[in-house]
Specification:
8 helices; Pseudouridine synthase; single chain; about 350 residues; alpha+beta
Length: about 350
């Protein structure tokens, strides 16, 4: 049986940016590579090297800790320099001067530095590319089965759950977010506050997925479902599930689940879709009114219930485990499968791997 052990040798992530840096502007985009660090760890390390506040840096998305990851960050160009001394002055030249590659320890390297007009914002990415190595004892028949399962997941999609890492190392981020929402806890760090509140939204979404699965297929259209157009991202409420089901089956639209907030598009009251989402909110200990009171801080959004897995070229490669990166001679005789795929922004590779390994033959 093959298993997944997250590590830089077995888990590689590369951000797919929404746009390339332009080469001009008052900010500098940094293409970084990190190992066994969170994105916030990397931000803190670079901010310390530049002697700037971490809040002055931008990022498009958070990347896994136990992995080798590459992503863009941004810094204001007039607020520091990485050239020369490891402890440069806080105010550098008008253009941030950086000799790349620039290593900040043996687990963090700045690979590219390119100017751009504005700060990088959360969500400014198209998705992520992944390379995952599964290892263990398996024969050719086991690998055949696993390859068929992977092809099936690519064809039909995966439940678009938030992975466990969304909820923190102790799994208590959603509970902390609920306390913030109710005013029972204070958090001055804006990034931390946003992270905790989004974890609470994520818990609602995951529960809504569970309830949909328990009452039918995830892709089954219920009256009142908020559907998303695949091509444009536009949202509308289903008033005729039979007609809309045909559109879902053709891949034109997809049902969505709630990330509750004050301006989120909701299913109509008394509809089957609304009943599922109301139950999901109650399950995390909140009410719709709690989310509405958050106002502009928590506008809310919709998230597709199915995650599209994209492959290009050789996506399932069989190896002996000794050939897989970082496994060494002690692994001789074991087998490995190297998977290459891409997910849209917000998708979790760990969710895809869990679905792959837990799917019945």
């Amino acid at each position: 049986m093959l298993t997944f052990q997250p590590s830089p040798a077995h888990f590689m992530v590369e951000e797919i940016p929404a746009y390339p840096p332009s080469g001009e502007g008052t900010h500098t985009f940094l293409w970084i590579e990190k190992r066994d660090l969170t994105t916030f760890d990397a931000i803190a390390r670079i901010a310390a090297a530049l002697e700037i506040a971490p809040r002055d840096m931008g990022y498009a998305g958070l990347k896994d800790r136990h992995a080798l990851t590459r992503q863009w960050l941004s810094v204001p160009t007039k607020m520091g320099t990485l050239e020369g001394s490891p402890n440069p002055p806080a105010m550098g030249p008008a253009r941030l001067s950086l000799s790349v590659p620039y290593a900040i320890g043996d687990d963090l390297t700045v690979l590219v530095a390119t100017p751009h007009p504005h700060k990088l914002r959360l969500g400014h990415l198209r998705g992520n590319r992944f390379e995952v190595v599964l290892t263990g004892t398996a024969d050719d028949a086991d690998l055949d089965t696993l390859e068929r399962r992977f092809a099936a997941l690519v064809a039909r999609g995966v439940a678009n759950r938030f992975g466990a890492q969304r909820f923190g190392a102790r799994g208590d981020n959603a509970a902390a977010g609920l306390a913030l929402l109710r005013g029972e806890r204070r958090e001055r760090d804006r990034r931390r506050r946003r992270l905790l509140l989004s974890a609470l939204q994520s818990a609602v979404f995951n529960r809504a997925l569970e309830l949909r699965a328990a009452t039918g297929d995830l892709a089954q259209v219920r009256l009142g479902d908020v559907l998303q157009k695949t091509e444009t991202g536009g949202l509308f409420v289903s008033t005729d599930p039979a007609i809309d089901q045909d559109r879902v089956d053709r891949g034109e639209v997809v049902p969505t689940g709630p990330l509750p907030g004050g301006r989120e598009i909701e299913p109509p009251p008394d509809s089957p879709a609304r009943a599922i989402e109301d139950e999901a909110i109650v399950a995390v200990g909140a009410t719709r009114e709690d989310f509405t009171r958050a106002g502009r801080e928590l506008p809310g959004a919709r998230r597709p219930v199915l995650l599209k897995v994209t492959v290009d070229g050789e996506s399932f490669v069989r190896e002996t485990a000794g050939d897989a990166a970082g496994l060494g001679e002690a692994a001789a005789g074991l087998r490995a499968a190297r998977l290459r795929f891409a997910l849209p922004a917000g998708g979790y590779a760990t969710v895809v791997i869990e679905a792959l390994l837990l799917t019945p033959p």
